[in-house]
Amino acid sequence: MEKWLKPVRKCSGCKLNLGERCAFFSNPREKWRHGLCPGYNNEELIKKYEEELAKHPPKEDKIQRQKVAESRHTAEHQTGKSKVSTLRSVH
Ligand code: SF4
User: Which residue in 4, 14, 44, 81 is deepest, having the highest Cβ count within 10 Å?
Assistant: First the structure.
């Protein structure tokens, strides 16, 4: 598994930043190593991503699960085995 999947702080504001990963690059940290990321709000890459998304839209049951998770303030674990609360515990 790739070690640095998550977008870095400099990725904020990029339309390809999906929160947990970059829509286009597998290693966002590496892309910023030598200056500005070539994909930062790159219209061509955004268009490619949207075309790819249109070819493979998310399934209805997945959308339904996401709505339920949002209403319960939980998120599905990446493996899909358990649910992780996104609420911070107050002591
Ligand atoms: S395209 Fe570049 S700036 Fe945008 S999220 Fe990916 S790594 Fe970050």
Answer: 14
pTM of the model: 0.68
- CB neighbours of residue 22 within 10 Å: 24
pLDDT computed for residue 81 by the predictor: 62
Pocket of ligand 1 (CB under 6 A): 7, 11, 14, 16-17, 22, 24-25, 28, 31, 37, 39-40
CA distances, 53 to each of 33, 46, 66, 91 (Å): 28, 10, 17, 42
Q: How far is CA 60 from CA 11, 48, 54, 57, 89, in A?
A: 29, 23, 14, 9, 32
